[in-house]
């Protein structure tokens, strides 16, 4: 399915649960996204947000460049979020992932989860991040301050193990 | 023979030297794994990019599949290294 | 130690780590607090926020009233945050807890943690919330829509077990 | 005999009917647990508030203590039910 179809498709089995998924080059307003998920609602007891930022690696990194697979990136994140909504009974979720060149200190990814209770919101955000890291088609390349040819970041075995814990 | 669109990402794309190509597939190429082995015969760049077959991930029509997945009526097949988003 | 002393005391053994602890009646700006913790820094890779909101319990709840022990409430939260900073190597933490009457949908508590890596930020926020719930001197009383005399909320055994997991 | 300031919270406060009081402590009251048992003899309200001793939490000078903790030179002692913040 293409990205537009994924965006418009009702989220079964959680059709009435607010879900926002965006893949974009521009930055985002973490505050506004958190507010949007809880605005006007009094059934939410817990909101968890995770922001992943570009670190400068002790000053060595000039920027990260994120390549992505247009269409599939959004579809895959949407699948992961729907899994999380069903599995943890979330009352809402937002996931935004950027691509392109990102400077140190700038945000790369945002996940927000809403639930009646704290554990579900924490677990949901962690689950989404675990599977997003290993399943969403993004690749990071480092641009170094010294101008040396950047390297593609290697995938970590730890990321796969992090996913495995949800299968226990 | 059938025609499929291939898309490449990250260092697979860099090593092959292009982001996409349309190729004719012999009828003997049945699975994602078959496709990888077939592509390695196309050029030195393809062989270099796909040298370590077990690290290459495959998506058929934008869904992840294992190497033993039949290509079926695939229109777009993507090959890429393990993902490093998030 | 009184609240003012706690506020001004340098945070040993994490003297240079930004730590903000506030106990207040007024609401807070989640967005601004998250931004404040990461502003101008490029060594932070992960920011986690937890917001605890007042639920309306299916429309039955008019408000929660939070009583607290002035001075000790802030000192205790500060102790818990310093523990978390040391234990998880956090690069910053913010904890804000309100008291007084809180309407459904409004925030009660905010915890924000910053770290180089995701796991430490998630674990730090969870740890702070676990110990804050069982150790910070706050008590919730329910005010019901039907005007019935409100009850004090009972402590949950589950909250104690949540703390116990950190001792394993 | 010595003088201490007591503070009460939540339903302990409501049942005793006040948020704080200053009392004289006999020298036989050595620990937090001794204090709870002593207070139960002061009035019916105190007895009702502190009936289930094991659920009463104690803080001495704003730090949590167990019931066997000596009161020492405590200036302010707080009694309250299990906490329900967060």
UniProtKB/TrEMBL annotation, chains A, C:
Pfam families: MoaE. The lineage of its organism: Bacteria, Pseudomonadati, Pseudomonadota, Alphaproteobacteria, Hyphomicrobiales. It comes from the Bacteria. CDD domains: MoaE. Converts molybdopterin precursor Z into molybdopterin. This requires the incorporation of two sulfur atoms into precursor Z to generate a dithiolene group. The sulfur is provided by MoaD. Pathway: Cofactor biosynthesis; molybdopterin biosynthesis. Heterotetramer of 2 MoaD subunits and 2 MoaE subunits. Also stable as homodimer. The enzyme changes between these two forms during catalysis. This is Molybdopterin synthase catalytic subunit. Gene3D superfamilies: Molybdopterin biosynthesis MoaE subunit (3.90.1170.40). The keyword Plastid does not apply. GO terms for biological process: Mo-molybdopterin cofactor biosynthetic process.
Automatic annotation (TrEMBL), chains B, D:
It holds the Pfam family ThiS. NCBIfam families: moaD. This is Molybdopterin converting factor subunit 1. CDD domains: Ubl_MoaD. Coiled coil: none annotated. InterPro entries: Beta-grasp_dom_sf (IPR012675), Mopterin_synth/thiamin_S_b (IPR016155), ThiS/MoaD-like (IPR003749). Gene3D superfamilies: 3.10.20.30.
